[in-house]
Design goal:
- By secondary structure, the protein is α+β, with helices and mostly antiparallel strands.
- The protein has six helices and eleven strands.
- The N and C termini lie far apart (38 Å).
- The relative contact order is 0.16.
Length: 230
């Protein structure tokens, strides 16, 4: 398979968009002496790392507690009948239990239905730090990625407070605009609110429905957000 070297900017952006939009993934762990795989539901933090809500009753969670080395794969729909044309991103990661309330809040914002069981004693949040990444953008399109470019590239775009302020301003003053965008994305009803914002896009939520909306072009600062939404 041919390596892509001339279009790394596009490849990294494609990979970020795919990861941030993913609502389901495959998690590979080391269980006993063999690898094991499980379906998980990821969320992605502002800084580009994956967080998972996992139960200690699951074998893959106990495996992570013994050995945090793991891999995660997300994929998108195939462009043609051949499944090999589907875009996918594979991450090699180190997983650790996270007690950071922000990680839990991020996960539950993207997966609000999980609020029903997130407080059970056997559930905990795990943060996956990426150490290597491989992206396949369809048949005969593959590249090993620069992990640092899966995260926001400037200090301004890592500013959680600035992102929160930008969301609050739009939620307070542009509810009708958000409802229109949600309808364009297949949502219905009114009262949609911004729940996440990052350099590549944002999430809108109403009750237990969450819609991911990607920017046509990445943000430079969160102050630009209002002018970039539909």
């Amino acid at each position: 398979m041919q390596e892509l070297r001339e279009s790394q900017n596009d490849i990294h952006r494609e990979a970020r968009l795919l990861l941030r939009a993913a609502r389901v993934a495959s998690l590979a762990v080391l269980e006993e002496d063999y690898p094991s795989i499980a379906l998980v539901t990821p969320a992605v933090t502002l800084d580009g790392e994956v967080v998972l809500l996992l139960s200690q009753l699951s074998a893959h969670t106990r495996a992570l507690d013994r050995d945090g080395r793991c891999a995660l794969m997300v994929s998108g729909p195939a462009e043609e009948r051949n499944p090999q044309t589907s875009p996918r991103l594979s991450l090699v990661c180190d997983a650790v239990r996270s007690e950071d309330p922000a990680d839990r809040a991020r996960y539950l914002a993207v997966h609000p239905y999980a609020g029903f069981y997130a407080g059970f004693g056997d559930f905990g949040v795990y943060r996956l730090s990426t150490i290597a990444a491989r992206y396949v953008g369809g048949f005969a399109r593959a590249a090993s990625l620069d992990v640092e470019r899966l995260a926001p590239v400037t200090v301004a775009l890592r500013d959680e407070a600035a992102a929160a302020a930008a969301m609050a301003a739009v939620n307070a003053g542009q509810g009708g605009r958000l409802d229109r965008i949600a309808r364009e994305q297949g949502g219905d009803g009114s009262g949609w609110q911004l729940i996440t914002l990052d350099p590549d896009g944002y999430d809108l939520a109403r009750e237990d429905v969450v819609l991911r909306v990607a920017f046509a072009h990445g943000l430079r600062t969160y102050a630009d957000f209002s002018s970039q939404i539909g």
